[in-house]
Amino acid sequence: MSTIRVVWGSASAPTAMSSYDAALADAGVENYNLVSVSSVIPEEVAVEAVGTAPDLGPAGNRLTVVESRATTGPDTGSSASRVSAALAWARSLGDGPGLFYEAADETGSEDVEERVREGLAAGQELREWTFDEPRVAVESSEADPGTYTTAVVIAAYGGSVPIIPE
């Protein structure tokens, strides 16, 4: 299996879906049909935090992902709100299997990194693996008043594959 790439992005737009699409574009995965899986990293697969995805195949293909996503609606108050998405991961020693954990916040709270670390630690306790140090990617964005804003952090498993079998 090829590399799992951790990518992230955020954007504001006039609708919730358009802000999500724009955040996916910021992360470089807007042209794929994302298929979410739970959170297990297969053994002997590299995980790289790259920020923006390279070309992962033709538009319209299926891309397997673990996704953290937060979207906030138009702010009617005088101050902008904040959205944050976080993804934490850790591998078991010796290129063994690992875990991803996601957390998202649409209220402006600053504890999304702490919560994702706590979730990952809880998942690690369920397994009899010895883990490396965890890594975390966080994407946060201030929402412009009157718009929707989305933040995403995505682990993209390898390249894309055709969504319709031949």
TrEMBL record:
GO terms for molecular function: arginine decarboxylase activity. It comes from the Archaea. The keyword Lyase applies. Transmembrane segments: none annotated. The keyword Lyase applies. One of its GO terms (biological process) is L-arginine catabolic process. Signal peptide: none annotated. Its cofactor is pyruvate. Keywords: Decarboxylase, Lyase, Pyruvate. Its EC number is 4.1.1.19. It catalyses: L-arginine + H(+) = agmatine + CO2. Belongs to the PdaD family. PANTHER family: PYRUVOYL-DEPENDENT ARGININE DECARBOXYLASE. This is arginine decarboxylase. The lineage of its organism: Archaea, Methanobacteriati, Methanobacteriota, Stenosarchaea group, Halobacteria.
